[in-house]
Amino acid sequence: MGHRPGTVRCFPARTPADFPPALGAHDIGLRDLLSAATLLGPLPRIDVITVSVTDLVPMKIELSPAVAAALPEVAQQVRALVG
């Protein structure tokens, strides 16, 4: 996304194209699910919170230090959206 690792962004998604593609050829991402959902009618407002990463690496459970450090800001963004 062109941002330094750990950068938190929050934005409204207006169309499925606002979502990142699936992580791999065998994954179904939000973009795919929302594209299918649009066949049923208009989508509600959807807010997206992202955290930038350094590189895409094979899936693992551990977070990078930059992503782990961003979690408090992510939690604050979520509270602001649902508050």
List keywords for this structure.
single chain, alpha+beta, two-stranded antiparallel ribbon, globular
Walk me through what this model shows.
By secondary structure, the protein is of the alpha+beta class. A two-stranded antiparallel ribbon has the order 1-2. It has helices spanning 30-37, 65-82; strands spanning 8-13, 46-51. The protein is built from 2 helices and 2 strands, in the order βαβα. Helices cover 31% and strands 14% of the residues.
Distance between the termini: 28 Å
Strand proportion, as a percent range, falls in 5-15%
Mean pLDDT: 80
Order of helices and strands: EHEH
Task: Provide a count of the helices.
Answer: 2
Rg is 14 Å
Question: Pairing-aware structural class of the strands and helices?
Answer: alpha+beta
The unreliable regions are none
Question: Helicity range of the residues?
Answer: 25-40%
Query: How does the overall form come out from the CA principal axes?
Result: globular
- What is the number of beta strands? 2
Largest sheet: 2 strands, antiparallel
